[in-house]
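new request in #modeling-help
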Amino acid sequence: MPTTKDLVSRDNFGSKFGIIAAAAGSAVGLGNIWKFPYVAGENGGGAFLLVYLFFVLVIGVPVMMSEFAIGRRGQKNAFRSFGVIAPGTKWGVIGIMGVVAAFFILAFYSSVAGWTLEYIVISATNKFAGQTPQDLNASFNTFIANPLRPVIWQLVFMVLTALIVLAGIKKGIEKYTKLLMPILFLLILILCIRSVTLDGAKEGLAFLFKPDFSKVTGKTILYALGQAFFSLSLGMGALITYSSYFSKKENLASTAVQVALADSLIAIMAGIMIFPAVFAFGIEPSSGPSLVFITLPGIFQQMPGGSVFGTIFFILLAVAALTSTISLLEVVVACFSEELKISRKKATVIATVAVSILGIFATLSFGPLENVKIFGMSIFDILDYTASNVLLPLGGLLIVLFVGWFAGRKITKSELTNKGKLKATYFPYFRFIVKFIAPVAIAAILIYSIFWGGL
Ligand code: TRP
């Protein structure tokens, strides 16, 4: 058990809204705004959305509750929290995998986040004007292949992330997410309104909301589960770390539900903002990862006030990415500072420098290091693949096994009910899911993605 001194000296979130803003800030990111629309677009639109929402509720929320229970019980970084609950066991390895996953995700995520900064400047200076889709495609590819610019933007982004993390939980993460999340919501709302008022918006909305079940295949189901994990920030201890700073009064179950609702709402709003525009301007909804960086600028430059809406959009993307990267960096910083017994400042500097070095390799893999292949994949792709398809599902699987079979019913129930103060009529269902349903479902995506390279 942590001593009173540990508890007193550890920083904490100061308010309920701060907790929701930080956790939702971690969840809402490039995964919602950049990835969700194109994955949904490639997998049948409305049908994908339904399967996705089903997984968020039935598997995502229980896994999130499990991470919250571990973190708040442990009151330590993701590695040590397991040791507090199960002393002398090897479960802490989940936390170490989490630190590795944080490194990998941050490396490629900060690369894309850096592109959003370049695109803020391009839109604000109205450089999209008059470009054909081919021009936009060419300028995007030239930009990401440049040996310097994307690296500089990536480093700028990492420094921003580090500055917030350095300031601590209450004065850094909580303060900025409380400010940035409402701004993000407002910006998305503005763009949704712009998009649904375009001529031809109806078709886009129908694509998103009218499910065509003939499009649901095994692949749709597996992609939807993978997307739910990534989007909710599950499987690598980000939420274990955050919840270790939650107050003992926080209702973990309702927090998990609220964060999942906020995350899904923003993903749906991202769809509402993107698909009507895509249809109104006659673009394929399944145009893949470039949807945001090539297709949308094409759309913005055809609409009145496009430069303004384009700038708003890329600011929004950068803000969403920033509140996610801080949660990833915090996993590493909490672990380094508590385990290596160094100051938070030193831990942040070491973690940021180390992540940035790896990140530079990821970014350069679109240019000078384009021919470096590991198992046939570029450095960027191998980092994304290993983290998203192996480490996250494996971490998630071990987390539910730990909570379902090892941590014991009593500890879990005590955390979820705040020592019996809250009612938990859902508890038997929760137990059943973490013991049986979630492990089987997660094992299925893991096996699929490792052996068939599917996700
Ligand atoms: N959830 C974020 C997104 O949707 C990304 C992210 C932040 C993440 N922290 C994470 C993903 C931890 C997996 C694990 O963009």
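bot summary: Residues 13 and 247 are 7 Å apart (CA to CA).
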